[in-house]
Design a protein that fits this description.
The structure holds two protein chains of two kinds.
Chain A lengths: L1 H19 E4 L3 E7 L2 E6 L5 H7 L6 E3 L3 E4 L5 E7 L3 E4 L3 E4 L5 E12 L2 H7 L3 H22 L2 H4 L2 H23 L1 E12 L2 H71 L3 H15 L4 E5 L4 H6 L2
Parallel strand pairs in A: 3-4
Antiparallel strand pairs in A: 1-5, 2-3, 2-6, 7-9, 8-9, 9-10
Helix pairs in contact in A: 3-6, 4-6
Chain B lengths: L3 H43 L2 E4 L3 E7 L2 E6 L3 E4 L5 E7 L4 E5 L1 E5 L8 E4 L1 H4 E4 L7 E13 L2 H6 L4 H16 L5 H7 L1 H18 L4 E12 L2 H73 L1 H19 L1 E5 L6 H4 L4 H9 L1
Helix pairs in contact in B: 4-6, 7-8
The chains are: A alpha+beta, B alpha+beta.
Chain lengths: 303, 345
């Protein structure tokens, strides 16, 4: 008899262990259903107040006890979800900005399951979650970009502000409807549309070409100016020397005239006489014709 | 068929056989249970401890819930079966490449080979001021595990998440710089900013990693643009050569002009000295004669005249024209007017 009871006890323990005990991992949240009705959820401690507020009017046991848990075997069923940050990535999209330019963007969202109760009823799969991201999250970013001009899209403060304004409202809606929270949303790739790249490249080449021409022109201009300056300086140096030389020569002439004046002024006729005599003295091998009235004849005649 | 005595013996034999089989089965069960029990004990024993190597940390999960982290190396104990261990290397630097991927790491026999990722590489730069341009950039980030529990439990695809955050950060920071700043001037500053912003983002995701460094590996222009940029260097050299040429011109012209000016001035000084000396010489001669002349003017003058005429007659041909009509010139075949012209000239 006691053996049979022991065997039954063992069996009960086995059933309890196998079908009654369950673990909720550090990176998991869980939903426990009793005959199809959600009666218990296991969530992160940090999300307790948010979820409690949402489920205030529901009779659901909210537990933050990760690790070993218990459910009534067979009667209660368990579904677990990962509550790690998951990434949603959009397809590449060409978007118009407010100043009529275009830009190719790819956006992302980092989200996690906060309220497994709502999530299990509404989505329950990554595929459906991605559909929600495409339909609800993706347009938020596009609208934010549409309102900014090209420069502002690259200003992280402005683009983040434009997205954050919409994110709060979006999160309220998504949390209420689907039990997930978007922790981060943004644009991770911003590029020129491929057909514009060649014109950007051309623009950059032209910019450098302008700089090249400018430098060459600066070099030529500098050279010409400098040469003109040097030529002017050369002329100034020589002109000044000529001027000084002329003054020196004029002063020399004046001084010589003064010497002559002081000396010859005593008897100019004597000077003239002496100069005539000098001229006669210098004459050599010259044939002189004298007529008979020349006073020189007196000399020859011996007076 | 059987008499009563034989039947009884046979029944006893069967009973003994049954007893023996039963005993053998029970013995087998006992032995099996003992062996299983022993195996179970051995499993429990080996499942109770593990070795934690230097540079690693282990996270112990009890019923899948993280309960503690072991940081020091050595033999560690855990509750068998219900506690599981996950070990994380916290010293190893993990590398995330942006703009390229290493196809084959280098070794002592061959160099590394890389594959460029064009879509990642092309980044808009100088977006402010409507002067937006394109640049190609390769960045490398290195990270270590800082919080093993978060590292193991918080992010679904950690490498993918880091990669997206990395690209977002690069494309957030680069547009506020000019092409030259990215190419050379501010590479370090940009690397630091990327690192700080990316770290902030990863902390927001509670990724449990620490960015050791972020460096711009390489930054370059599109091919045509690069060729044009290289021409600027040649233009710079041209400009410099023109400056040097003008300096060379200055170095040759100005000294020559100064020398020319000095020559003119020296010639003028020479003229001055000569002119004054001539004047003095001439007046000195005059003064000497004058001193004598003033004593007896007529005698001095006459003496001077006679001396001069003597020399004049000695050194020249004197022809006295005694003709009445001046026809002496015809005799010598000389044109009178030509002579007058020569005298005038």
């Amino acid at each position: 008899m006691s053996k049979n009871i022991f065997k039954v006890l063992l069996l009960v323990i086995f059933i309890i262990i196998t079908f009654g005990l369950f673990t909720v991992g550090e990176d998991e949240v869980a939903v426990v259903k009793t005959a199809g009705k959600i009666t218990k959820i296991v969530i992160n401690e940090s999300d307790y107040s948010t979820v409690k507020e949402k489920l205030a009017d529901k009779d659901i046991n909210i537990s933050t006890n990760k690790g070993l848990n218990f459910k009534i075997p067979i009667v209660q069923t368990l579904k677990k979800y990962s509550d790690r940050f998951k990434t949603y990535i959009s397809n590449e999209e060409q978007v118009d900005v407010s100043n009529s330019r275009k830009i190719d963007i790819k956006m992302y969202a980092q989200y996690r399951i906060v309220n497994p109760e709502q999530y299990s009823m509404s989505l329950d799969s990554k595929r459906k979650t991605n559909i929600i991201m495409d339909n609800d999250v993706y347009p938020v970013v596009i609208q934010a970009v549409n309102e900014l001009n090209f420069e502002e899209v690259f200003d992280s403060e402005k683009i983040n502000k434009a997205i954050d304004i919409r994110l709060k409202e979006l999160n309220e809606k998504i949390f209420d409807n689907h039990g997930i929270l978007i922790e981060d949303i943004g644009i991770y790739r911003k590029q020129f549309p491929p057909r514009i790249v060649s014109s950007i490249e051309e623009k950059m080449v032209q910019k450098y070409n302008k700089e090249i021409e400018k430098k060459k022109a600066e070099g030529d201009s500098f050279y010409k100016l400098k040469v003109a300056e040097i030529d002017r300086e050369e002329k100034e140096i020589i002109s000044k020397a000529i001027e000084e030389a002329a003054i020196t020569k004029a002063n020399a002439d004046a001084e010589a005239m003064k010497i002559y004046r002081e000396s010859l002024g005593r008897d100019l006729n004597l000077y003239k006489f002496l100069q005539r005599m000098k001229t006669y003295k210098k004459m050599n091998d010259t044939t002189i014709f004298l007529d008979s009235t020349n006073e020189f004849i007196e000399y020859i005649n011996g007076y | 068929m059987f008499n009563n005595g034989n039947f009884k013996d046979h029944a006893e034999t069967i009973d003994i056989g049954r007893e023996r089989i039963k005993k053998a089965i029970n013995d087998f069960k006992k032995k099996t249970l003992n062996v299983l029990g022993l195996i179970f004990l051995i499993i429990i024993l080996f499942n109770s401890f593990y070795i934690l190597n230097e540079g690693n940390e282990s996270v112990i999960f009890r019923f899948d819930k993280a309960v503690r982290v072991e940081k020091t190396s050595g033999i560690k104990f855990k509750i068998p079966i219900i506690e599981k261990v996950k070990t994380v290397n916290v010293q190893e630097q993990n590398v995330i490449e942006y703009g390229f991927r290493t196809k084959k790491a280098g070794n002592e026999f061959s160099s590394a080979s890389y594959e460029r990722n064009k879509e990642e590489e092309e980044v808009i730069v100088e977006a402010v001021g409507d002067n937006s341009s394109l640049i190609l950039i390769d960045v490398v980030a290195k990270y270590k595990v800082e919080n093993p529990i978060n590292f193991l439990t918080k992010v679904d695809d950690l490498e993918g998440t880091i990669r997206i955050a990395f690209e977002e950060t690069v494309r957030e920071i680069i547009p506020s710089y000019t092409v030259d700043e990215v190419l050379k001037i501010k590479k370090e500053e940009i690397g630091r900013k990327i690192r700080n912003n990316l770290q902030e983002k990863l902390e927001k995701y509670e990724a449990g990693v620490y960015l050791v460094s972020t460096k711009i590996q390489n930054a370059y222009l599109l091919e045509k643009v690069n060729a044009a940029r290289e021409e600027i260097e040649k233009a710079n050299q041209y400009k410099k050569s023109k400056e040097e040429e003008s300096q060379k011109y200055e170095n040759s012209v100005i000294p020559r002009a100064n020398a020319e000016a000095n020559k003119i001035l020296e010639e003028a000084k020479g003229y001055k000295a000569e002119t004054i000396a001539d004047a003095r010489a001439e007046t000195a001669e005059y003064n000497a004669i004058y001193d004598e002349y003033i004593k007896n003017p007529s005698v001095t003058k006459e003496k001077y005249y006679i001396q001069t005429m003597k020399k004049f007659i000695e050194n020249n041909n004197i022809i006295i024209d005694g003709t009445e009509n001046g026809s002496i010139h015809k005799f010598f075949n000389i044109d009178e007017n030509a002579i007058k012209k020569e005298i005038i000239n």
